[in-house]
Amino acid sequence: MAAPQFLPIPNNIHALACEAISRRIGRLPFTRNDVEITEGLIGVTLECLNAEVKRTLPLCAASRDTGFLTGLGECLSERLGSDQGAAAPVIAEVLVSAGLAKPAEVLDAATHTQMRGIRLLSAWTWHIASGDMLPCDGTCSSGGKTDAWLAQCPICRTGILSRVTGKRLFGVPPADYYLDCSHCGAKFIPEKDRFRLVSIAHISDPHWRQYLNSCRKSDDWAALVHEEKPVRPASRIATSRYRMAPKKADIIIPQPVAVHRPVKPARPVEGVPVSFSTLKDGSLVVTGTTKTLYFRPVKLRFLRGVRHDLFSQSQRTVQQALEAPVFADVKPLFVREYLRYLPLRLGPVTEELQKKNDPLFPQLLNRYGDEDFGSFTLQNEDLTHKKGLLIVYVQGKLCHVAGCHSSYADLVDRTFGNITADKCYRDGDETACRINSLVTAFRSIPVIWLHELSDDTAIDAAVFDLRSRYLQVTAASQ
Length: 478
What we know:
Helix content is 27%, strand content 19%. The chain is α+β, with helices and mostly antiparallel strands. The protein has four domains: 114 residues, Orthogonal Bundle (Arc Repressor Mutant, subunit A), CATH 1.10.10; 83 residues, no CATH class; 142 residues, no CATH class; 51 residues, no CATH class. The strands form five sheets. The protein has a seven-stranded antiparallel beta sheet with strand order 11-18-17-19-14-13-12. Strands 6-7-8-9-10 form a five-stranded antiparallel beta sheet. A hairpin with a 4-residue loop joins strand 4 and strand 5. Helix 2 crosses helix 3 and helix 5 packs across helix 7. The protein is globular, with a radius of gyration of 26 Å. The N and C termini lie far apart (69 Å). The C terminus is likely disordered.
């Protein structure tokens, strides 16, 4: 029997499959039954299933003397170079739960017994001429424009649209499923052969507000992807609440007076004005009370685009959030005004209050909870395991001084660079939100500066020295 041909999985299908699993099962990578589910394991499993004529494999190997196809576990072991027999039923369960595959019964020709197997759904298959197209999951036709409707969100033209089942949108009549953009969060609900746009990232956007609540065929939505993109500022980063002074060498191109959504009121950078000297290598010379320290600028790797209204993604209920002590003053007002909202998810409820300009909205978030956030890590891996001092210095203002006793990866990558929806609320992490929004707003210039120290006592002494000298006025806010 001819050996199966393992066609590499197209990038877009792989990305959408991982996105579907992250949304419906858990954020990748995660562990289930002592098996680590990673993007690599998902890609290899899909390639193994797609290589079979019937897109079907038994979970374990069938009788060898019949020349029957091997099992999924044996196929994964051969591809990955290690024993994956225990991983086969686990990854199969994940694919079935995420809607990428379905259980199947496979007949062993030698013993005439039925074996448990898994079949890849036709929407997630590909062939040698598929290119980099996205799978059609029954919501689109086979035309190129309709594929673009799923491959590129017509609202932000950055994210991909994935099908969400088993969930209900706040304030929208129940539907069997809806389409959700992985980047801007735009949501479409099906109505016969059409799709209605029921939510956009920013309702105040004049350009896309005209499409809100409109019902169009998928081909019509796909056509919007190919239209000329409306004139907008070069990036949301340059139009955040923080004012970024242009460099002298920059050419300032005046923005046309065309329609684009109102920008949030600019908020000046909060910090203490300080003039630090700069060396030829770009280091900052920071003079303390007892010694002079030299801070190096940090290069960051940004992992995704800017995330707007991140607080709207909170999954806990309003009731669960209001149990926190910091909401003691808000809870009586909320119970009195919005008692019916208590069992609902906190994120959509907060977003609804924002759209209504309800005075309770700012009382739920911390001071920086409705800023724009990014996801970033240290670009220099040699710094990840080191520790010492960290300062946030931008536009001639010292905004934050912190000591790092574990590793810079813990402080920068996992604390400042990874803002979750719940961190945006009053019981979250206001400092992390503030620094992340600063880094996101000024991502083109150094914002975070490091000075390496190995002695914990020296780190504490240096932090106390710098805060006492430079941050006396804002010590309470640090």
